[in-house]
Amino acid sequence: MGAAPQAPRTRVTARARDLRFDAGSLSLNLVATVGRRPVGPVERMGDVERLAAWCSGVGLTPAPGYEAEALLRSLHALRDAAYDIASSLLDGHRPSPASVDLVNGLAACEPPVARLELTPAGVRPAPGGDLLTEDVLLSMVARDLIGLVSDASRGKRLTMCASEVCRMLYLNPASGRARQWCSMRRCGNNAKAAAHRRRRAATAEG
User: Which residues form the Zinc finger CGNR domain (predicted)?
Assistant: First the structure.
């Protein structure tokens, strides 16, 4: 991408470090673990505790005994590649070949096959089927990104939050009015409050 614009200086509050699960896809939720890209990045998944919270929030369950630090490093690398690729759909830059190779390599691992078991009470999902090895978990995120890029209708719904501080990537809903901000409760209200303050200041000066 080109030179990053200068964003207004703002405090990094606890809310700014909150994990986000409203980007509209698994891979974009991973990208959202860094806030305020591309200027003033805020790390939201910097340790294994936050990794566990993110996995829980997106509904991915690592199998017992997984190497948390190794998975965290791999997800950090994947999210950088995912941001490089997803943002290219918006600004037209050419993603790094390394980003594409990483995503393709991780996606090559086959996801688990869902299974059922028959019990006296009826049919239910086989236990343990939702436990994911590190390679499978990474593959699911990479495959989600590939699906996003491959689907023209989803690609057209990809947008960037209008807030100069936020700039979160998210998918607009398939139906209904497109959103200008990632969240009305967050960036939308902040923008409206700032506009109101500017109007009051202009009125006072007048």
Answer: 157-200
**pLDDT tens, position by position, 54-64:** 999 999 999 99
Q: Is there a contact between 140 and 111 (Cβ–Cβ < 8 Å)? A: yes
pTM: 0.84
Give the residues across from 122 on adjacent strands: 119
B/e letters for 71-83, b = 16+ CB within 10 Å, e = fewer, are: bbebbbebbbbbb
- 131, two tokens: 């436990």
Q: Do residues 96 and 108 touch, judged by C-beta distance below 8 A? A: no
How far apart CA 162 and CA 188 sit, in angstroms, is: 9
Q: Which residues of 18-31 are buried (b: 16+ CB within 10 A; e: fewer)?
A: ebbeebbbbbbbbb
